[in-house]
Amino acid sequence: MILKSKLFENIISLVVLQGFSYIFPLVLVPFLLNKLGVEIYGLVNFAQAIIIYLGVVISFGFDLSAVKNIVAYRNNLKRINDIYNSVLIIKFSIFMILLAVLIILAFFVNRIADNFVLFGIWYFSLLGEVLFPTWFYQGIGELKYITKISIVIKSVTLFPLLLLIHDENDFLFVPIAYVFSNVFSGIFGMYYAWNKFSMRFYIPKMNKIIYCFRDSLPFFITKGFQSIYINSNVIFIGFFIGNAAVGIYSVAEKLNNAYAAVIAPLIQRVFYPYFLANKNVKRINEIVKILTVANIVFVFVLYFVCEPLIRSFVRIDNMEIIRTFQYLLLACGTIVPMLLLGYPYLGALGRINEANKTIVYASIFHIGVLFLFYLFKVNDINVIALLLGCTQLLCIILRVLKIKKILRLQCFLKQ
User: Fold this and answer.
1) Separation of alpha carbons 394 and 105, rounded Å
2) How confident is the model at residue 265 (pLDDT cuts 50, 70, 90)?
3) Model-level pTM?
């Protein structure tokens, strides 16, 4: 029965983990906002946004490439162990290189130098990214270990430490809590990999390490560009506008991300396999239109009801947060068609690389516009919020044009 299958178990584990991963930070928003104030909350989120960038470099796309390779060698324990240790060594090497880069940047970038302790503590939370072999458990199909370890460790370490936060002077406890949470999760993740699945640490041959690095490079490039347009707004605001503006934008962005977090897994894990199985263009077009219209209607309604909802959630009277969220609703309105036209649609047409290219082009556009904002001293966070939706709209246009071109070519070849 499907309910007793490993697939169903992994789906439930994924749903629980996704829910916890996004709901937990969202629940912390009103607590931290009221304890730290908008400006210090913004500073903490600014530092975290930069560290997230570095985390993308450390992950290096292994959550895709290493999973692919482990699945391919599922019955070869020695080869899986080679992959496991190669990835671990590469990640740790990148971690040490980026630590040196962060220290060097502190001599040239005042924003980092002035808050180096904050940045340094946040950075060591990335040890969890190095140690926790999420990609390993994904590859062997044992997602329950990721879920159990993440939820238990985060609950045990994060909640008690966050209780130490009483006012804005205690802001360093936020990254400290994440360091404890991530590092202990990583340690337990490695422990189970060694004891439950017979992984052993050793240094593989250099050619195997190099292969893992080269194999993951294309995945890293794609994920890196995707991270650029998602996280660059907070960093731009932090460098050129100020901490208070980051605080306002971060609250609105977390609310927007919560919506995207519900939609994205549903589209990628439900409609992608459905589109692949059916490949009925007419049916796919109908689904895309229906879901896009339904999403626009939902966002339209949300625009008018978000004010009382946000006021009751953040529990502070700040109209700027509400206004910024309303501008971010363009991103909410474009997220569904953008995702549907990506891996589900282009993937069903056998053109996943084209979906990746649209992300790269849209990210370049996003950074280019932010550079223009810098040149012309645009410091309105609502305009910057609107840019996120415009970037996703550009991605939609590029994907629609590419799909039409592919379908015309297919139609021509059939004649």
Assistant:
1) 33
2) low
3) 0.85
